[in-house]
Amino acid sequence: MNLSMTRRHFFGRAGIGAAALQSLLGAETLPHFAPKAKRVIYLFQSGGPSQMELFDYKPRLVDKYKTELPESVRMGQRLTGMSATQSTFPVVPSRFKFARHGQGGAWVSELLPHTAGIVDKIAIVKSVFTEAINHDPAVTFLQTGSQIAGRPSMGSWAVYGLGAEAKNLPGFVVMISPGQGTGGQPLYDRLWGSGFLPTRYQGVKFRSVGDPVLYLRDPEGFSREDRRAYLDTLGELNQARARELGDPEIATRIAQYEMAFQMQASVPELVDLSKEPAAIVDSYGPDARKAGTFAYNCLMARRLAERGVRFIQLYHRDWDHHGGLQNGLPKRCKETDQPAAALVNDLAQRGMLDDTLVLWGGEFGRTVYCQGRLTDDDYGRDHHPRCFTMWMAGGGVKPGMVLGETDDYCYNITADPLHVHDLQATILHLMGVDHTRLTYRFAGRYFRLTDVHGTVAKKLLV
Amino acid sequence: MREKIKFGLNVCLAQVFLLAQPVEFNRDVRPILSDRCFACHGPDAGNRKAGLRLDVETEAKKRLGKVYERISSTNLALRMPPQYAGHAALPAKDIDVLKRWIDQGAPWQPHWSFVAPKKPVSHSSIDGFVTSARNAPARPETLLRRVYLDLTGLPPSPAEVDAFALDPNYERVVDRLLASPEHAERMAARWLDGARYADTNGYQSDGVRDMWRWRDWVIDAYKANMPFDRFTIEQIAGDLLPNATLPQKIATGFHRNHRTNAEGGIVEEEFRVEYVADRVETTSTVWLGLTMGCTRCHDHKYDPLRQRDFYSMFAFFNNVPERGLVYNFGNDEPMIKAPTAEMATRLAELDRKLEAAEADWAGLQPRLAREQKKWEKMIRGDWAVGRGLVYSNVDTLRFDGKSAVDAGDKAKFDYMSPYSFSVWIKPESGDGAILSRNEDYWEGEGYGLYLKNGNIHFVATRRYTDISLRLETVDRVKLGDWQHVAFTYDGKRKGKGVHIWIDGKPAAIKTTFDELTYPFGPKVPFRIGGGGGLRFQGEIQRVKVFDRSLTEEESLSTGVVETLEELARVPAANRTAAQQAKLHLAFVETGISADERAVLSVLDTAQAERDKYYASIPTVMVMEEGPKRQAYILKRGAYDAQGEPVEAATPGMLQPMKPEWPRNRLGLAYWLVDKENPLTARVQVNRLWQMFFGQGLVKTVEDFGSQGEWPVHMELLDWLAVEFMERGWDLRAMEKLIVMSETYRQSSTASPEMWQRDPENRLLARGPRVRLAAPFVRDQALAASGLLVKKVGGPPVKPYQPPGLWQELGGGGYKEDKGEGLYRRSMYTYWKRTVGPPMLLNFDAATREGCTVRETRTNTPLQALNLMNDVAFLEAARRMGERMMREGSGDPASRIAYGWKLVLGRQPNQQEAAAALRAYERFLGRYRGDGAAAEAYLKTGESGRDLTLNTAELAAMATVASLILNLDEAVTKE
Predict the structure, then answer these.
(1) How many A/B residue pairs have CB atoms within 8 Å?
(2) Does residue B50 lie in a domain region?
């Protein structure tokens, strides 16, 4: 078995990942079973959108306005240092209206009219919960399965395990949009990093400023033909060296330079919207032609999915409404609601939703009690790890369902809790991967995305 | 899994050589038991199944027959490892190994790396232990470049290549390189990965820190070839050495390099525990090659390490007087001023100057006292402190508990600006606002001076619940009486920097909240009598605001209403301290002679200069031993689940601490470098081997436990380890030993069959051929182009980086340096932990989020794009092209050959020369035909191009230079 072969698969070409390659040695076959989702588009809403204002309708809170959160509900739950020393914890209900939508009659907020229009295509999970209470550990936990830096991200695991179909694009792509408010919480390279997996499995960030991929563009005064001639000479020199020394790594390098050359064409083609019908672009909303917006990134996500990219991770920032929720939250919704719904519809009309898993959600929820100053025209909510809402669509997820219940205070889960590790196990399951068997040995032990936990949420599956 | 494949392969390789030898427990049996059985039948008592343990000889031997029966069973219900838990059967060859071992009487061995190494007697040189047939020696020019890159991270210059061709005295080159500062930098660069060194904190908004003085300590240590035992002791416990020197204290920065969290709202203890745990894990990885992180939550599943061991080690690092929530804009306590030698000299100079000026001024005092008496007899009018006065309102203002006076956009102060107030109050109620720039509720953002319950309160707030400074006077003011209040704040964001005087007497202050860690922006105007949701009742008079922290004497003087004239009439003995202060200040400011003023001004200047210089001296975070914090076993590793208390101790499975060592970090350091310690020396020489050969003799450099790799050259490893200790932990001597060996000096050329058979060169039957580590890919280009600035140490620099990279993630703006900072060695590149330097990360640099000791290398198209199109490499290619034209002789072919020499340290062969010349001519034609394209192409980078050179020729030559820098050979050590 020529092991150097694995090194040639930067983008896991021909749908084979390194873990799958191992099946050639008879140890593990990937996917473990027929996948429902061939690819994932994760619309991460960074900062922690408030579940009470968006999906988890709590009409009875209106009567409890400004009353103290009872200890019987809080049950000693730790609070962040931001509100732990607050003298009072006044309950504040959503100041936005809710209505039932779709055949299932799911409650959706007036802030998300487009999402309301696709409720029959998505599954709303109101009972996701996490262990972390602050942004950095919580986002890291969701994306890597551990609160502490150093583990591979979900997308890295997917590409490591399954490779990708994309020929001239990375198997794992990341795109980021800031909220148009203060910008929001920062993000970190580790969220799409490969941890202890080889770095070729890390997410490649497609950027909205400069080259979409770092260093993609040739310098001024250096044409495509120049690059071709350059690479021909480089290839010739490297080939000669390979013949002399015998190191197969040189052949790999030659191939990687050719791949780079192809990417220089495929990435501009990807971001060229000239052949995209205007009606489609417009369906993603008024921002869809503006690079760096969530709408643009959603459209790109679909185009990446079409081209066989395995894991497409979007981040939209600025959902962290400790204060200013009343004005800030509608803005974030306006930025994201139409594009996210358009993406689901667009995938559906192309017949791609069946084998594309779309996820929407943040790193935790928000508290039912007000943080900071409660006034007639403003309020805020602190971080709340005990319950929050996500939605999932396509890729083997039961459409039109609502999973999970929370108590009247939207504080504790009362039915069908879904831990972050359960969510991760479910995502891998939909991709045809048994989360307990996708492992990597590092520092003396076998690591996996779900650590030693995680149960697939069977109720969510078609 | 990939590791496993290769591991299996190595076992196969080893077996080629060891076929038909008796089964050896450690080499053949333990890896099987460890990997397939220990998780349920090993050291972890919490998870042990059926009461069976196979990691302990006496226990295992009782039931070996049964074990064999179960592993070889074809009955799936009985077979081990169990089918029902998803485990695969043991492969036939493993079952065979176990059978043969049992047949041999199951001879047991303790795990090899937990027994102190003994010096093998079979050989006494590296080459003696490497028994495979050796390759031919590398060509001299190949060897020269190899040893240059290995020892300095830079290629040899053409002059050095030529000199070596004339006088191929290899050992002399080695000695020279080992003694060079470039070597010290190269060794330090490698140490930084394990030390998780960075210039930012690494969580959330990832604020800055200053640890470069520690980094320079590392460079200095390598420069001096500090023995590794001392290198260890000073970094782990330099502060605990008797009469610890400044460098010894700086050295302890090693264990303050971990990530720290400044995110508002975190639970402090959760993260403080995280920091201490990081120290345990890093120490065990870097020194011991143990994966102690596993034992944070439970007993180790493979090695005889208990959870108790983790927290006993934890106890060594638990007494640092540090906080879980750190300051986001600089170093956090404990920290020290860490002047360089140069700075210390300069500071001493300024101190001497200041002392002299103080002495001169003091000498004048008797004369001045006499003169003041005379002056007092003549003074008229009044005087008040004027310097720094930014607002003044002399009126008497009457407040009814509802209104406030809006003074506009005045007194705009932040958490890091010093300020002072002077005000007269006549309160009628114990609650009210005196002065404020705060929103109109108590928990609002801003600052204010208030009365509450009769006590004076000062509050400065960003977010009341966690980012705020709050303090109050112990005593109450009097209602219905006029009182003077003076307030000063030194702008250092701590309660201890606030002073309040009431009627000239210092007020006792109680700080109730001391966490002013972020800037705040006053959103409202400056108000008298209102703010914070409170209103004053009574009268306020003579409000003064200063944008500096007044001295005590000045503060006192602000409360004196009598004019100078009136004061002068009061007999000196009857004056209050405040009155004296006012007279004295007024005299010094207005009554002294020009000569005397000159003396004072020298003093003021000397003081200002000294203060300014002192403030500019960098600090470094260090270890300190505070009061003992009791350590506990933390259940599941959770900070809030304390179990049994534990005391500081080293792991029970290794050699005990000597009774004479203290049970603190210093004792731990002695224990680490004790000759009885079976791991430290082996782990260090193994990592050194990795540096030269691309991987360690034990490939799992981070894990010497039973899941670690069995070394193919065990005896060599032990010999090197003992040799290292016997030579007084002399690292440089070990490096020399390696690079002088024939094993190292072999050619790296190999037949396809050999590449196939031993792709990773585990048998050492050829020389190393390994891609350069990330920093050296760039350093080489800078060196070849002549751009490299060879300055050692100093603050980090910010070379080229694609714009917007930080902003996109919310990390603020990256401001590229100008000039020198663009061309320093990559180890000095500013390391923002959450968004690392893109070029270095592209080439597999460790992220520095945690300790990394394993070198990894991938080969990706992003690297190709990076080398072809990054401005750093384009500029280097252009400058290299200029050198080729200027320094290479005459014709294009010679110039191209010179380029080969600059990077590859050799002449191109005929085929290479021809291919490169064809490319040159192709691009020359292209750029002659399109001058504008050539101009545009040559514009890249900040350094201007050599305008004396022909544009088209330079553009073509720069292209060839870029080709050379992109060759596989260029980024590879051959």
Answers:
(1) 301
(2) yes
Residue partners of B314: CB distance under 8 A and separation at least 6: B276, B277, B280, B631, B646
In a domain, A310, yes or no: yes
CB environment B323-353: b (16+ within 10 A), e (fewer): bbbbbbbebbebbbebbeeebeeebeebeeb
The amino acid sitting at B250 is I
C-beta atoms of A245 and B748 within 8 A: yes
Does residue B5 carry a pLDDT above 70?
A: no
Residues B219-236: pLDDT tens digits? Answer: 999 999 999 999 999 999
- β-pairing, B505-506 with B498-502? antiparallel
What pLDDT, in 10s, does the model give residues B301-336?
Answer: 888 899 999 999 999 999 999 999 999 999 999 999
Residue (of A440, A438, A434, A439) closest to A456 by Cα position: A434
* A104 inside domain: yes
For residue B495, the enclosing domain spans 383-561
B667: burial class by Cβ within 10 Å (0-12, 13-18, 19+)?
A: buried
- Domain-located, residue A270: no
CATH of the domain at A449: 3.40.720
How many structural domains are present in chain A? Answer: 1
Nearest chain B Cα distance for residue A457, angstroms: 20
- B586 shares its domain with B461: no
How many angstroms separate the CA atoms of A384 and A369, rounded? Answer: 10
Task: Name residues 162-181 of chain A within 8 A of B (Cβ).
Answer: 176, 178
**Across the interface, do B265 and A134 touch by the CB < 8 Å criterion?**
yes
Residues B33-78 pLDDT 10s: 888 888 889 888 888 888 888 888 888 888 888 888 898 888 888 8
Question: Which of A89, A136, A168 should we substitute to test contact with B (largest number of B Cβ atoms within 10 Å)?
Answer: A136
Residues 241-280 of chain A whose Cβ lies under 8 A from any Cβ of chain B: 241-242, 244-250, 252-254, 256-257, 259-260, 263-264
Total domain count for chain B? 5
On whether both B609 and B641 belong to a single domain, the answer is no
B624-677 pLDDT, tens per residue? 999 999 999 999 888 999 999 999 999 999 999 999 999 999 999 999 999 999
In chain A, the residue whose alpha carbon lies closest to the alpha carbon of B918 is A233
B532 and B395 fall within a common domain:
yes
What's the length of chain B? 974
Q: Same domain for B817 and B932? A: yes
Residues from chain A that touch B933, judged by Cβ atoms under 8 A, are 220-223
Q: Which amino acid appears at position A272 of this protein?
A: D
The Cα–Cα gap between A221 and B934 comes to: 6
Flag whether A228 is in a domain: no
**Residues from chain B contacting residue A207 (CB–CB below 8 Å):** 802, 804-805, 808
| In a shared domain, residues B299 and B216 | yes
Average pLDDT over residues B891-912: 97
Answer whether residue B753 is part of any domain.
no
Range of the domain at A352: 4-216+278-460
Residue B466: predicted pLDDT: 87
pLDDT of B584-593, one tens digit each?
999 999 999 9
Name, in order, each residue with C-beta under 8 angstroms of B822's C-beta and a sequence gap of 6 or more.
B787, B797, B799, B800, B816, B872, B942
pLDDT band for position A17 (cuts 50, 70, 90): low
B670 and B596 in one domain? no
> What is this structure's pTM?
0.90
Question: Cβ–Cβ of A233/B868 closer than 8 Å?
Answer: no
Tell me, yes or no, whether B868 lies in a domain. Answer: yes
Asked if A214 has any chain B CB less than 8 Å from its own CB, the reply is yes
Which residues of chain A are within 8 Å of residue B814 when distances are taken between CB atoms? none
Find the mean pLDDT for residues A208-229.
94
Query: In the numeric block, which tokens belong to residue B409?
Result: 């956009």
B3 pLDDT higher than 70: no
**Which of B63, B81, B109 marks a domain boundary?**
B109
Quick check: is B162 in a domain?
Answer: no
Residue B484 and residue B513 in one domain: yes
Using the 3D structure, point to which of B597, B615, B633 is the last residue of a domain: B615
Across the interface, whether the CB atoms of A133 and B267 are under 8 A apart is answered yes
Same domain, B303 and B444: no
